[in-house]
Design brief:
Oligomer: single chain
Radius of gyration: 27 Å
Distance between the termini: 112 Å
Number of strands: 13
Shape: globular
Strand content: 5-15%
CATH superfamily: Spore Coat Polysaccharide Biosynthesis Protein SpsA, Chain A
CATH class: Alpha Beta
Helix content: 25-40%
């Protein structure tokens, strides 16, 4: 018996609507499947495209700190040495605009600023500058060169840079600018293991009984002055809410370094949201990397490290720990007292293959004019392969965390060289200099 059922007009409308929607639904489904296939077979994963939104979120967090109030100890009264004619002229140079604006009038919207901090090793600086000149994307950013005092040959090398915008800043309170007074050597200073009471000399010995050496303490003073100035004292960085990359004069920078650090800072909030920084090289300066198909999260190294303003605010808040820890090296001070005070593993994200390398044989503390000065002709045989010329970090890699690392950590008491209360006071004064209206001159 045939059915006598006939669909209602409402049912017919539903069927017609479904038939119209079905092709669109199938088209959307095919598009989604195509995108999944595309991303799964591409070196650039969906994380790369999503990172722009996450980067904006990170920048919004950072922007809250750009002009945020800094907690200061109201009982501390910052004091600075009386400026010399040379230090005054250097401060005037610090206010000059970047050079090469005619060649590079605009910075890329997503640029990472680079800070190169130098002392007095021209043979090293020449190599570092040559390596930077071959870095892909270097013309998109601003290079800030921070000098520990003034050395004519170093200045001359920087003046030759034509491959990007470049700005020079000079530490006006460097011990190298004061030949007869603090922070240089004062006539009444104690030396070596002098007994201050018996010899009636001035100074506080370190934990090993040694009195200050200006060329030793300049390392830590310069780094701390530079950090405070770059983050809080320059119009060129005042509103910068991205990352800043820090390198030294004895670092060889590979051609892919800038593109790799861009990728790492984009991937950091996705792949390692608890990471504080990104690095171009392993924390072990002698290591070339593991060569794994994996990103590495480990302690922050001192070769090619980058972080943003939010992290700087956390570091700045630890000024007292940094400035009073009896250790003349800034990096060991950070590893042994500042980073551990954050309360958890302070990871930095890097690739499995280095994009920068430490090549110097002579440390800054070994000097250039001493009888026992380290001698190095600055020749470097750095092997650059084709893979070092292009970005070699993939965003679909997993992250391998290295929680147990060697080197200096919490509990290390320091190598000394930083026991004089005058150095503590000057160091702390640097933390205040851009956050107060008045500071006395001694």
């Amino acid at each position: 018996m045939a059915s006598s059922y006939k669909p209602s007009s409402r049912s017919r409308l539903k069927d017609a609507g479904f038939r119209r929607v079905l092709p669109l639904t199938l088209l959307v489904l095919l598009l989604v499947l195509f995108l999944i296939f595309l991303f799964s077979n591409s070196k650039i994963s969906p994380y790369y495209y999503a990172s722009a939104e996450l980067r904006q979120q990170e920048e919004r967090t950072s922007s809250l700190q750009v002009h945020g109030r800094v907690k200061l100890d109201l009982n501390f009264k910052p004091k600075f040495p009386k400026k010399t004619d040379l230090s005054i002229s250097l401060e005037q140079r610090n206010n000059l605009p970047p050079r090469n604006l005619d060649l590079f009038p605009n910075l890329a919207s997503d640029h990472i600023k680079i800070v190169l901090y130098v002392h007095n090793r021209p043979q090293y600086l020449q190599i570092a500058v040559q390596s930077l000149s071959k870095v892909k994307g270097i013309g998109e950013t601003l290079l800030i060169v921070s000098h520990d005092g003034y050395f004519a040959e170093m200045d001359k090398i920087v003046q030759t840079i034509r491959f990007c915008q470049v700005k020079q800043i000079f530490a006006p309170y460097s011990p190298h600018l004061y030949s007869n007074s603090f922070p240089g050597v004062s006539p009444d200073d104690c030396h070596d293991k002098d007994n201050a009471q018996k010899k009636k000399c001035r100074g506080n010995p370190d934990q090993y009984g040694n009195h200050r050496s200006p060329r030793i303490v300049s390392l830590k003073h310069h780094w701390w002055w530079m950090m405070n100035t770059v983050w809080d004292g320059l119009s060129e960085t005042d509103k910068h809410i991205g990352h800043i990359l820090f390198i030294e004069e004895d670092h060889f920078i590979f051609p892919n370094a800038y593109r790799n650090i861009q990728l790492l800072t984009q991937l950091k909030p996705l792949k390692c949201p608890h990471c504080y920084a990104a690095n171009l090289a392993p924390s072990d300066v002698s290591a070339k990397g593991e060569g794994w198909a994996s990103l590495i999260a480990e302690k922050i190294g001192n070769v090619g490290y980058t972080f943003n303003r939010t992290v700087w605010r956390r570091i700045h808040a630890k000024a007292k720990q940094f400035c009073t820890f009896d250790e003349y090296n800034w990096d060991i001070t950070m590893w042994a007292t500042v980073y551990p005070s954050f309360g958890s593993h302070v990871f930095s994200l890097r690739g499995p293959r280095r994009s920068a390398a430490h090549f110097g044989k002579c440390g800054l503390h070994q000097g250039n004019n001493q009888k026992s000065a380290c001698v190095d002709n600055g020749q470097v045989n750095m092997e650059i392969e084709e893979i070092d010329k292009i970005p070699n970090i993939q965003s679909n890699w997993p992250v391998h965390e290295v929680k147990k690392t060697g080197g200096y950590q919490a509990g290390f008491k320091g190598w000394g060289g930083w026991g004089d209360e005058r150095d503590h006071e000057l160091c702390l004064s640097f933390a205040y200099m851009y956050h107060i209206n008045e500071a006395s001159a001694d």
